[in-house]
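Much of what follows relies on a compact textual record of a protein's fold. With that in mind, consider the following protein and its fold in token form.
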Amino acid sequence: MDKHILERLEKAGLVLPPALPAKGLYHSVVETNGELYVSGLGPIVDGKPLTGVVGQDIDLPNAKHAARITALLILAAVEQYCGLQNILRCTRMTVYVKADERFVRHPEVADGASEVLRDVFGENLLPARSAIGVYTLPFAIPVEIDSVFQLKC
């Protein structure tokens, strides 16, 4: 791993978890035309998914924490695939939030993941992003994130 990235992770108090295997018939990371596409991932801790509905049994701080965990799993997948030292930035991130119908603070949940990317790549290299409320997600997880990364030339 790039020394700069390792230092940034340590400074932010972040530790990459082990990368997760795919949970179906797909690849976790696909490379094409100088970009990495990372499949949707959710918050898994010690092999078990965090579950719940944001705004119902998960409050905003815990939903942001779930997004942070997910961002770290995304970075772990990228590290396993090609090494973070080969990444310029995350260019696109879509954050799906399983929330009850009254919850409208999806962008704040997504900020949990964006904060991780900011700490690793810097504020000037934050991605374009969408935060979308959904009715259900796989394994009853509260957050799922897919992303695109630009490889260094």
